[in-house]
Amino acid sequence: MSGDPPSPTPGRTRWRSEGATGTSRPPRALALRGILLELERIANHLGDLGYLGNDVALSFGFFQFWRLKEDLLRLNAELFGHRYLMDAIAPAGSRPTSHLRRPSSCSRGWKGSGREVVTLRSIYDEHAGAQDRFILTGQVLPSSPGGWGSPGSRPERAA
């Protein structure tokens, strides 16, 4: 999980209580929950990508990804009444949604963001500092200590 999401943790608690009590959730509420979680996931990844740029002294990348995150947070506030989607998931459904705008009227400002992310990725890919920092990051080689508990790793047998 990326970032510190405010919706999934309370959402999971509500989902467990709903499951334990046999409470049914309306299809619309389930769809809105999925949308909320996806928007939150994207916002967290944009922030994380900005921090990756910051880690390699690529302040341009940091500011550009955080600008995109800010655009998404403003869209969240416009659509759902809160930038970080707090309290949007309620037991047996979601909060009242009469204030929601139609997605077609709000999505115009967000449409170009995917192209910007692709452009920023190419900048990160070509940045020598980023290449040096991340070239082997996240790899667990067979020769790595098996005590790390990573899937697929096997501790060496004593001879």
Describe this protein with a few key phrases.
single chain; mainly alpha; two-stranded antiparallel sheet
Explain this structure.
The protein has 159 residues and is mainly α. It has one domain. Helix content is 57%, strand content 3%. It has 6 helices and 2 strands, in the order H-H-H-E-E-H-H-H. A two-stranded antiparallel ribbon has the order 1-2. Helix 2 runs antiparallel to helix 3 and helix 3 packs antiparallel against helix 5. It starts with 7 loop residues before the first helix and ends in a 25-residue tail after the last helix.
Itemize the secondary structure elements and their pairings.
Blueprint: H1 8-21, H2 27-55, H3 59-80, E1 89-90, E2 93-94, H4 103-106, H5 113-126, H6 128-134
Numbering strands along the chain, what is their spatial order in the largest sheet? 1-2
**Large-scale geometry:** flat
Structural class: mainly alpha
Distance between the termini: 39 Å
Number of strands: 2
Domain module count: 1
Tell me the radius of gyration.
20 Å
Share of β-strand residues: under 5%
Quaternary arrangement of the chains shown? single chain
- Uncertain ranges: none
Order of helices and strands: HHHEEHHH
Average pLDDT rating: 77
Tell me about the biggest sheet?
A: 2 strands, antiparallel
Q: So how many helices?
A: 6
